[in-house]
Amino acid sequence: MNWLIHKTLKRKVFVFVLVILLSYLAGFFYTFYAASKVNTAIEQMFETSVSLHQMKDTLDAYEQHVDNYLATKDSDSFVAYMDTRQAILNYQSWLDHGANENPMLLQMTNISSMLNGYLHHGEEAVGYKRIRNIERYLDSFSELTVIRELINRKVDEVLTLDYDWNLEQHKLLSERVQRIQIGLILITGLLIALGVLFVLSFSTEVTRPIMVLSDRANAISQGQYDGFAKSAHGFREAEQLEKAFDTMTGNIKMYISELEDKVETENRLRDSEIERLKIRNLLNEAELKALQSQINPHFLFNTLNAGMQLAMIENAERTNVFLENLSNLFRYNIQPQNNRVTLRDEIRSVRHYAQLMKVRYGDGISFQFDIAPHLESVVMPPLILQPVIENGIIHGFANRLSNRRLQIKAYEVEGMAMIEVEDNGQGIPPETLKRLNQKDFRKSGATESHTTGLGLDNVYERLKNLGGKLSFDSEWHRYTRVRIVLPLEVTKNESYGG
User: Fold this and answer.
1) Global pTM?
2) Is-contact 486 468, C-beta < 8 A?
3) pLDDT, tens digit, for every residue of 357-367?
4) Which tens digit of pLDDT belongs to each residue from 237-266?
5) Residues in CB range of 74: below 8 A, 6 or more apart
6) What class is the 362-487 domain?
7) What are all long-range contacts of 296-303, with beta carbons under 8 Å and residues at least 24 apart?
8) Is 375 in a helix, a strand, or coil?
9) Domain ranges of the chain
């Protein structure tokens, strides 16, 4: 964590991203809070009107049930009458605001009092009906309808007052929305300004030491090795680069000094053109030696085995397992591409590769295998699954640092072996997906990050020669699924072009 202490490019980028993230979070929470307040206010605007209309519907239902019961004495009508009566009691409690200076709340309290008389006359009508006092229950029902008319007028007055109140609230909400919009514009402007300042500062600090070192390199190419002043840099990486450049210059000077001891004095005093030719010859010679010293694959394989034995002797279990997986993967990868292997061999190699990726990415990546046992003997070309999986890791997970999942399945479909490799990465753009399914792989070959050096075009050609198929399915920002279809009747004694 020294980069947090020293002034480095990494720290600069980290601080910038942190500031941008905090600014974004502040804007998000501000917008979320303001939107919640606006939403709550909108709900409150129509709550009273909706409840009053529902109450009027309930009063209609109450009178209908009372009328039905008075006419038929039906038990269902009585039960419905009791249910609506309880609903009216709930409205009565909701409307009662007591003594209040607010005109609307005062009117609602009056309606609550009227509902008390309304229910009282309803109960009287039902009671007189039970004792068959026709004259009295008709009078009670008539009083009930009169009170209902008064309630309707009061409700209309409350709705008018509520409309006026809602109109005022609408104006306040409009002003609040305008403030939210202004706040979003300010936050966006702040983020843009921070981004521009960072780009200007970052580009200046990066290019300045590069230009200084470029001038020094040009001077060295002309034979000048001394007299360079120390330049002030704003970050640690530039200082390390300058130190490395000083070391390289010192080594060049030492090497030239050794050459000068072996040649005649007159050759050492020739013009700078001869010196540049000597340096070019030395660079060509160094390149030739580097090519001659490339490690033979079998030498590297034997060296890995020696490393495994050394890890076992030193009880370095994890190192031993890592080298064993690497050795097994390397042994599998150096075989000729026109060989034949079983699905069991291919899955075993993929598992070795998965263990290496687990060491590299830790818990940030997971592999899931679901292989039908009877398909493990299916014969296929080698190094088919690993390039597909590497494509998923390199391209699918390019912008994902955690929760990277890869699923490898194998099952039988209509007499064919179906192998699926699915990742939860960023997916494939529709135009690229269409091109891949048309078997156009011109931009999806192997990259420097592939361990096999094989691209999808190589995989497709070798599958096609064996009667296999390759297809792609993807949803942008959700998943990518690669399907490989192989015939089940292929045996190891058959051959194919490769």
Assistant:
1) 0.40
2) yes
3) 888 888 899 99
4) 667 777 777 787 777 777 777 777 777 666
5) 68
6) alpha beta
7) 297/330, 297/334, 300/330, 301/327, 301/330, 301/331, 301/334
8) helix
9) 2-193, 362-487
